[in-house]
Specification:
13 helices; 2 domains; 333 residues; binds phosphoric acid mono(formamide)ester; globular; alpha/beta; Rossmann fold; five-stranded parallel beta sheet; binds norvaline; four-stranded parallel beta sheet
Length: 333
């Protein structure tokens, strides 16, 4: 089983692909999800080997790659933030050529987008962006799949708002993906944290073709009005200096997803989304540290909303598995 448009391709950012090809992955993921729930797994990747090169921590993305590969008959090697030579004793270019001699594909999580691009150029293997500072393109596939599964509307009628740090990888990926797919896309952040002009202009040019409605706003009342999905993410992303935290809390507190903010939606049937991990209670080491410093352990979302009936974050997390599996099958089988 192979999907012509994807065979042998890398997935470094959504913008490098077409709306149709992103939807092909989601459609395959939907069918894989149903089959898996019925206990059916047809293996398409027997004997394939995938290197997982992660320079930042991960739970969902790493596990999704590992479980997807295992269930499809492939094997993985995990190279974590410490313990490999990549970028330290060995250049990315040299590591890419070594990994290409042993593996069929590489997933990479790290910092600069140029690193994942370099891995792709020099390995000549499919390379998957498992998150960089710029994009999180495997996340957005799962996000769209989740919205489709929780909405009665056709995709182009679905509305979502990303609220929080509008310049981060998840926000940028959602903005571009929603624009490519013709959705009602709202990004709500203080002006200091809006995406750069080039990203907004790229979203607008995709929207001109797809019919997407794009609105970048700093007013939650307007941005959340009558929306279906409210999506947020951490206020400080991996790799950012902890020194920025005080400033972020000050800037983003009015954008916390809490019951007062949720009232701006104007109906009860909205859904809460978050790529996770989320800072919503004191049950983590980081939560305890933040509690001592700021007197609260709930940052981008309150525990009340996170645990509410509106929250679909664990469906969203599960969909990382199905979409990553669909990506592996489409590129490698
Ligand atoms: N959403 C996400 O990428 O989670 P991890 O950092 O756990 O992989
Ligand atoms: N924006 C977050 C996403 C984590 C999945 C980060 O980069 O840390």
């Amino acid at each position: 089983m192979s999907n012509g448009a994807w065979s042998g391709k890398s997935y470094l950012a959504e913008k490098d692909h077409t709306a149709e090809s992103l939807l092909d992955i989601i459609e395959l993921a939907q069918s894989l999800r149903k089959k898996r729930a019925a206990g059916v797994e047809e293996q398409h990747l027997i004997g394939k080997k995938i290197a997982l090169v992660f320079e930042k921590a991960s739970t969902r993305t790493r596990c999704a790659f590992e479980v997807a590969a295992f269930e499809q008959g492939a094997s993985t090697t995990y190279l974590g933030p410490t313990g490999s030579h990549l970028g330290k004793e060995e250049s990315v270019k040299d590591s890419a050529r070594v990994l290409a001699r042993m593996y069929d594909a590489i997933a990479y999580r790290g910092f600069a987008q140029s690193t994942v691009e370099e891995l792709s150029t020099y390995s000549q293997r499919p390379v998957y962006n498992a998150l960089t500072d710029e994009w999180h393109p495997t996340q957005s596939l799962a996000d769209v799949m989740t919205m489709m599964n929780h909405s009665a509307s056709p995709l182009t009628q679905i509305s979502f708002v990303f609220i929080g740090d509008g310049r981060n990888n998840v926000a940028r990926s959602l903005l571009i993906t929603g624009a490519m797919l013709g959705m009602d896309v709202r990004l709500c952040a203080p002006k200091e944290l809006w995406p750069d002009a080039a990203t907004i202009s790229l979203a607008n040019s995709f929207a001109a073709k797809s019919g997407a409605r794009i609105k970048v706003d700093n007013d939650p009342k307007e941005a959340l009005s009558n929306v279906e999905f409210v999506y947020t993410d951490v206020w400080l992303s991996m790799g950012e200096s902890k020194e920025l935290l005080g400033q972020r809390v000050e800037l983003l507190s009015p954008y916390q997803v809490n019951s007062e903010l949720a009232a701006c939606v104007g109906h009860d049937d909205w859904k809460f989304m978050h790529c996770l991990p989320a800072l919503h209670d004191g049950a983590t080491k980081q939560g305890v540290e933040l509690m001592e410093r700021f007197g609260t352990a709930a940052f981008e979302v309150t525990n009340e909303i996170f645990e509410s009936k509106n929250s679909i974050v664990f469906d969203q997390a599960e969909n990382r598995l199905h979409t990553i599996k669909a990506l592996l099958i489409s590129t490698l089988s």
